[in-house]
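If you are new to this repository, start here. Below is one unmodified record pulled from the training split, so you can see the exact layout before writing a loader.
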Amino acid sequence: MNLGRVKKITIIMVLALGVALFAGGTPRAQETASEAQYLIKFALLAPEGSTWHRVLKDFDKEVYEKSGGRMKLKIYAGGVAGDETDILRKIRIGQMHAGGFTGLGLGEIVPDVRVKELPFLLDSYAQVDKVNEALLSHFEKSFLEKGFVYLGNAEAGFVYILSNKAIRNLKDSQGVKFWMWAGDPLAEALFKEFKITPIPLALPDVLTSLQTNLIDAVYAPPLGAVALQWFTRTKYMTNVRFTNSTGGMVVSKKYFDTLPADLQKILKEAATKSCRALIEVTRTDNEKSIEAMKRSGIQLVDVNPADLQQFVNQSRTVWQALVGKLYTQELLDRVKGIVGK
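And here is the target side for that same chain:
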C-alpha cells in the first residue's frame, strides 16, 4: 500500500479502549445534489476522504437511487458537528438524525456494548463476527429502548500500543506517559489495574501531545495510528492485539418513524450492506497499515508467552470490575461462552 494513500485513511471508531479512531478538523458538510423529500443529517468524526466517509458516500448513493430520489444523506464529516457527545446531543434534540460512532460513543447510549471491547476477550475476526451476530438482536432492542434504531455493526479493528519505549511486559509500561481517551470508563479501569497513571486527552490533542513529549505512548488500530499520524511520533509497536475496537451506525427512532415503511426498509438494508463493506475494508487496510508502518521504521516488539499471560490475567480482573457498571454478569458470561472463555 502506498504510504501516501495510507495516511489519508482513517478509522471508524478509534478504539475501545477507545481508538478509534477519528481525526478532528472542520470540513464542510457534503453538498446534496438536490433536496430530497427525506434528508438524513448524518454526522461522524472521520474526515472526508477516509474509509468511513467513502463507504458512507456509497451508502448515500444507494439509498438515493433505491428510493427514487426521495431519500438522501447529508454527511457532516470530520467532527464539524462536534465530538461524539455533541453529535448524540444534537440527534436527541433533532438537529442531527444519525451518526457513525466508536464504541465510546455507542456506550454513551447503551453502556453494555463495551463488553465487545474488553481486552483479550476477542482474539480473532472470527470471534468478533460470531459475537456480533449472536448479540445483534440484543443490541437492536437495547438501542431501541433508548430511542435509537441500530443500523449495523462496524469496527476500527484490533488495538495495539505504539510508544517511544519498547513495551514487552507490564514492568516496561511503568513510568510511560500513556494517553487515555478522556471520559472512557473502560480505559480508565484498565489503566488502574495496570497501575499506570494515564494522561486524559481529547482525540484532536494527541498528535500535538506526542510532538511536545507530553505523552510518549498511545493505543490505536494500525489504520488509526496512520490516519492520525501518531506513528510518525512513535518508534515501537507492541505486537499484541490488546482489544478489538468496535463501532456502529445509529439513527434517531423519532426520525426513523417519520419515514414511510418502504424507505425504512431501504435504509436498513443499505446500512447493513455498508456496515459489512466497512468492516471488510477496515480489516484489509489495518493489515496494510502495519506493513506501511514497518516500512517507515516502526519496530514491532514481540512479547513472550509468560509476559503475555500476565497482561491477560490483569485484564480478566477488569472484566469483572466493570460488571454492574457497564454490563451485567449475564452478558459477560454469554460473550465468554460464545468465544469459549
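Two things worth knowing about this chain: Residues 1-33 have pLDDT under 50 and may be disordered. The chain has 13 helices and nine strands.
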